[in-house]
Amino acid sequence: MHVKTSPRSLLHLLNFAALLLSTAAATNHGHLEEQRRDKITKLHGQPPNVSFSQFSGYITVDPLAGRALFYWLIEAPKTSKPRSKPLVLWLNGGPGCSSVAYGASEEVGPFRVRPDGKTLHLNPYAWNKVANLLFLDSPAGVGFSYSNTSSDTYSVGDKRTAKDAYTFLVNWFERFPQYKHRPFYIAGESYAGHYIPELSRVIARRNKGVKNPVINFTGFLLGNPLIDDYHDNVGTHEYWWNHGLISDSTYEDLKKFCPNNTFLFPRGECNSALETAYSEFGDINPYNIYSSPCNEISTLRQYLNHSLPWKFRGNDECVVLYTRRYMNRPEVQKALHANITGISHPWVTCSSVIRRNWSDSPKSMLPIFKELIKAGIRIWVFSGDTDAILPLTATRYSINALKLQTNISWYAWYDDHHQVSQIQMMK
């Protein structure tokens, strides 16, 4: 059947088509404008000849509450074709510690803050040599992330953190659509042993049955993570005793009172035994028991003792101090597009308010591990052998509790002819 179209109806169709095109163009222009706004021209004290692009800013996750999370994207060097590299979201733990402070500035990011607290130097072991790195301050109230609802910082826990992180990702991929469908990993350490499996489960469930998901979630990496309260308590205290850090009597108390206590908020006789253990440690860095002492240790310990307990401090204590000085500089915050609400109190690496008021924390992530393994998600757990907070023994006990079959037996791994670790693969 032939339908005759009048000039007027044809004009309406053309106008409608033009409207669709203009809307699409406006949407495309919108995300490009947002990227332009978030692009970092140059950080304060940045070394010359930096060959990678950086972006930072805020993504709103709850407009009604006014919750917005701060991110810092550091792409792979232009010479290594960043568009061909995967995207890695990095999350630090605590709970309440900043990924900008630790992940970006102390661990896997490309910059390190010099002792002057004003200038930066390059990290030769930066992960952005092989991937595009996305650092996220999570939840709201941590680092530069914020909420306009004050009660948010007193009621946050695992569930809302995972929900907000997923909302962040959905909205972030709209701002950076060039990363859609690209291989996507999540990595982190410490209490990210909770953050990452919980966020991974949300993504995996949302992706189920989707042929070409926007968030092309491939797997996650955990370093010295908190996985299971019982096994982490047993393995941690065993490590302390085996390394001569605590007395026999204290170890007996820890074995008696702590295995069934919560790792995050120990109470009663377990907490008393832990306080005794901390005093027996002395002035060492529990995140690297063989590291050299910090010249500014007394000043830093005075600050830490009034903000966070021993268990939740950062890695290199001196570097924490340098980073805190750097991130509190107005010119640094301006370059990062951070602190847009003009918060009057100083920026801190970890929020004691968030940690003290953490509302929900499941005792074990092992059920989530089992679900994700069954779904085909790749998991890599690595554990440094000088970390006394969540040591190798704790990781081994937790992983062994999964009762997986060994795929490839324990073997030494070499990098440039130097033995750097041991590896075992399971399925």
From TrEMBL:
<dbReference type="InterPro" id="IPR029058">
    <property type="entry name" value="AB_hydrolase_fold"/>
</dbReference>
<protein>
    <recommendedName>
        <fullName>Carboxypeptidase</fullName>
        <ecNumber>3.4.16.-</ecNumber>
    </recommendedName>
</protein>
<keyword id="KW-0325">Glycoprotein</keyword>
<dbReference type="InterPro" id="IPR001563">
    <property type="entry name" value="Peptidase_S10"/>
</dbReference>
<dbReference type="GO" id="GO:0005773">
    <property type="term" value="C:vacuole"/>
</dbReference>
<dbReference type="GO" id="GO:0005576">
    <property type="term" value="C:extracellular region"/>
</dbReference>
<dbReference type="InterPro" id="IPR018202">
    <property type="entry name" value="Ser_caboxypep_ser_AS"/>
</dbReference>
<keyword id="KW-0121">Carboxypeptidase</keyword>
<keyword id="KW-0645">Protease</keyword>
<keyword id="KW-0378">Hydrolase</keyword>
<keyword id="KW-0964">Secreted</keyword>
<comment type="similarity">
    <text>Belongs to the peptidase S10 family.</text>
</comment>
<dbReference type="GO" id="GO:0006508">
    <property type="term" value="P:proteolysis"/>
</dbReference>
<dbReference type="GO" id="GO:0004185">
    <property type="term" value="F:serine-type carboxypeptidase activity"/>
</dbReference>
<keyword id="KW-0732">Signal</keyword>
<keyword id="KW-1015">Disulfide bond</keyword>
<feature type="signal peptide">
    <location>
        <begin position="1"/>
        <end position="25"/>
    </location>
</feature>
<dbReference type="Pfam" id="PF00450">
    <property type="entry name" value="Peptidase_S10"/>
</dbReference>
